[in-house]
Amino acid sequence: MRPEQTETERPATTPSLPLSAALLQMPLPELYTWLSDQADRNPLLDVEAPELLRVPLPRDEGSKETGWEDDDADFIPDQLRRQQEAEECYPEPVERGEGFRDMLRRQLLEERDIPPHLLPLCYFLVDSLDRRGYLEDSLDLLAELNGATIDDMTQALYALQEMTPPGVGARTLQECLILQLIHTKDFCAGTVKLIKCGLELLAHNSVRAVAALLGMNEEEAQRCCAAVRRLNPIPSRGYDTDEAETFVIPEAELLRQGAGWAVRYNEAALPQVRLSDEYQAMLERSDDAELKTYLDAQRADALEVMAGLEHRREVLTRILELLLRHRGAAFSEGRSAVRPLPCDNVAEALGLPTAEVVRAVHGKYLMTPYGAMELKRLFSAPAPTKTPVSPVSSKERLRSLIAAEDKTEPLTDEKLRQALQALGIELSVGTVANYRRSLGIPAAAKRKVKAEN
């Protein structure tokens, strides 16, 4: 039987990246799966899986705790959290079973309005959420990791933020609350301003100060405060977020060496990849021109994979050695003493593109005397670029707002303008109407359906 001729499949989440870049980006578990698949497809590629040497990830490394910290502007003040818990303002927990990310993936499978080219990016964003349901990494960084445009990544985010639970995919607490507020009867200039500028006042229940901030009487201010307290600052609350102990496979190990440190790449964690002796012999012996052409192509693909794996090991090793040169002394003081090293500086020092450094540390772990550490916590990402939201992305945000609206009380063009403004997109009501029509969406009056009794 002649082997089936198929192209080497590239990683599904990074369709536009060169193979070496995609392999550099893959965490070890994903790399194992991909290599196993390639061995099934390519007879010239022999892959021997290693023994999986997993180590537990310390709880404080796995995710930020879900308590809101007083000194973090992105988190709701602790006093407000306690008030909400006392007043039982959080939504009832959902029935345990389906995981938070699985629930989001199911929604994406059922979604019919998301353009096909955005779906892989939406799935990637789901995997990038933290346990609260927030997106910590910048869109610039995530677009770089996927070889995607910032515009496509922005549209994918807007599509994700249309999903249930409301507020999922928010970058900040303010965005999380506004995404929920927009679809309630409490959405107005006062509640938006309270979320953007007055959460500390709300935390201390300073109604008089809130009234002064919003330019309204205390009774109206009290209603705005109650409305914001009813919102949920943790989208994943009540869902199964896999909070059991997490195990990871370190890429490398940090070792004490005299008074200093050394880094050792974890060769044992990598699959052993080689060319098949059997099929190489077949290639040399065969007189079948078609078979030789096929095996030659498969051999070239196998060599490309092997070169990509060597490149991956070399880049990671160079980055870790540079980290030790600049931060080695801090490791002796404890994990909390290690300040992140800017990816831009690493790239310049090693003569690598910044994107290559970002991919190298994505999803990887370093074993230290203090336990496993996520590499990206040791490197600070490049500063995001400030680019205006494109018309295409603005239309996707508009579409997602309309898709998530209450159909018994659809958003008018003016309400849509206000909602877009609250989310940082400044458009005139006329432009909103034009964008809506270009999407083939009728006006609010024609979108309205009668409420069921």
Total individual domains: 3
Outline, from the CA principal axes?
globular
Radius of gyration: 26 Å
| Widest β-sheet, arrangement of strands | 5-4-8-9
Mean pLDDT score, rounded? 81
Number of alpha- plus pi-helical segments: 21
Distance between the termini: 66 Å
- Low-confidence runs (pLDDT<50, min 5 residues)? 1-15, 61-77, 82-96
Binned, the helix content reads 40-55%
> Helices and strands: which structural class?
alpha/beta
Q: How many strands, which pairing sense, and closed or not: the largest β-sheet?
A: 4 strands, mixed
> What kind of assembly state do the chains in view correspond to?
single chain
State which percent range the strand residues make up: 5-15%
Number of strands: 10
Structure description:
The protein is α/β, with parallel strands linked by helices. It is globular and about 85 Å long. The protein has three domains: 19-54 and 249-380, no CATH class; 78-186, Orthogonal Bundle (Arc Repressor Mutant, subunit A); 391-447, Orthogonal Bundle (Arc Repressor Mutant, subunit A), CATH 1.10.10. Residues 1-15, 61-77 and 82-96 have low confidence and may be disordered. Strands 5-4-8-9 form a four-stranded mixed sheet, covered by helices on one side. The protein has 21 helices and ten strands. It has helices at residues 19-25, 28-41, 59-62, 78-87, 100-110, 119-128, 139-146, 150-160, 173-181, 189-197, 199-203, 207-214, 218-229, 277-285, 289-331, 343-350, 354-361, 391-403, 413-422, 429-438, 444-447, and strands spanning 45-48, 55-57, 246-248, 252-257, 260-265, 272-275, 341-342, 365-368, 371-374, 379-380.
